[in-house]
Amino acid sequence: MKSVLFSRFFILLPWILIVIIMLDVDTRRPSPPLTPRPYFSPYAAARGGPRLPLRRAGPVRGVEKLNESRQQPPPQPQLPTIYAITPTYSRPVQKAELTRLANTFRQVAQLHWILVEDAAARSELVSRFLARAGLPSTHLHVPTPRRYKRPGLPRATEQRNAGLAWLRQRHQHQRAQPGVLFFADDDNTYSLELFQEMRTTRKVSVWPVGLVGGRRYERPLVENGKVVGWYTGWRADRPFAIDMAGFAVSLQVILSNPKAVFKRRGSQPGMQESDFLKQITTVEELEPKANNCTKVLVWHTRTEKVNLANEPKYHLDTVKIEV
Ligand code: UGA
Ligand code: MN
């Protein structure tokens, strides 16, 4: 009797062991996700707007939050917010320009777009556009006085100042969060690398700009890590011979110089950048970016005026279409 029991036990033992091992392996295997996990814009989702694919590289706080329970990412130091101030005005290419710009900005983590319309009121076109852009944004407006709307006079002075005023107001009472401001005209072309470079701005940073000043590029000349002059084909006597697209300023500097603004009075054409930078920094203090200012990461592109010679005045289309 005893030997029968023993033999049964030894026959069953390997099977019991196999079952135990199988169960153990199965529970260790990571379960496949129920649904594929795309990246969603937390902003678009919050608005109930369309869900737009978001930057795949780099830390994005909202996205990390969504995936927190699954991935447990290592704690990230807070990325400085990039505030992009964009003056914009109504013209046939406006929506196309804003579309290009939003497509770029949407790929940049922690960017806040301050769009300032040169208009007496916020337009429907821009409001609708921003609502669907899937970006954290602020929509402002201020009209340029008629007397300043003349060729040869600086553009977008009032709009950039409105953006500055908003930033200062927003950070009036709280300790300044890390942030970087830059002026992003709506017609330029921006590489994604540019944003990585400007994000580490401590006070005021500078870099080359392509297709500007009558040359293939303009750039700050750098020696031993310091700006010592300017490579430019136009008015080399400017204190800061740099285009609006060629610099960024830390939020801290903007807040600690509350009176620094763009000026109409006394400002000559092409001197807006210098007049502004003079108020907040010195050439010696500038931080060269883009490999000691040897890489072009932004281009001063200008869109051709569209030919609307065949646009009908009377026999209009049967539907109204926003362009
Ligand atoms: C150059 C500089 O790159 C600009 O930063 C500078 O503001 C401008 O000169 C100037 O003359 O003041 P440019 O390509 O000639 O740029 O100027 P635009 O691109 O036509 O205008 C600069 C920005 O101001 C754009 O974002 C544009 O949308 C906006 N803008 C222009 C207005 O808001 N209102 C206007 O009437 C014209
Ligand atoms: Mn331009």
UniProtKB/TrEMBL annotation:
- Could you say which enzyme class this protein belongs to? transferase
List all membrane-crossing ranges: 6-25
Positions that bind Mn(2+): D187
Membrane topology recorded in Swiss-Prot or TrEMBL: Single-pass type II membrane protein
- Where does this one sit in the cell? Golgi apparatus membrane
Task: Give the signal peptide, or none.
Answer: none
Q: A Pfam family name for this chain?
A: Glyco_transf_43
Which Gene Ontology molecular function entries are recorded, alphabetically? Answer: galactosylgalactosylxylosylprotein 3-beta-glucuronosyltransferase activity; metal ion binding
The entry's keywords: Glycoprotein, Golgi apparatus, Manganese, Membrane, Metal-binding, Signal-anchor, Transferase, Transmembrane, Transmembrane helix
* A cellular-component GO term for this protein: Golgi membrane
> Which residues are tagged as glycosylated in the record?
N292
Which pathway does the protein contribute to? Protein modification; protein glycosylation
Which portions of this protein are annotated as coiled-coil regions?
Answer: none
Identify the catalytic residues. E273
Q: Which reaction does it catalyse?
A: 3-O-(beta-D-galactosyl-(1->3)-beta-D-galactosyl-(1->4)-beta-D-xylosyl)-L-seryl-[protein] + UDP-alpha-D-glucuronate = 3-O-(beta-D-GlcA-(1->3)-beta-D-Gal-(1->3)-beta-D-Gal-(1->4)-beta-D-Xyl)-L-seryl-[protein] + UDP + H(+)
Chain positions of site Interaction with galactose moiety of substrate glycoprotein? E218, N310
> Which residues are recorded as binding UDP-alpha-D-glucuronate?
P87, T88, Y89, D118, R155, R160, D185, D186, D187, H300, T301, R302
Q: Give the cofactors, semicolon-separated.
A: Mn(2+)
Q: What is its EC number?
A: 2.4.1.135
One Gene Ontology biological process? carbohydrate metabolic process
Would you say which domain of life the source belongs to?
Eukaryota
SUPFAM superfamilies, sorted: Nucleotide-diphospho-sugar transferases
Annotated family: Belongs to the glycosyltransferase 43 family.
Could you identify this protein by its name? Galactosylgalactosylxylosylprotein 3-beta-glucuronosyltransferase
Which species does the entry assign this protein to?
A: Prolemur simus (Greater bamboo lemur)
* Gene designation per UniProt: B3GAT2
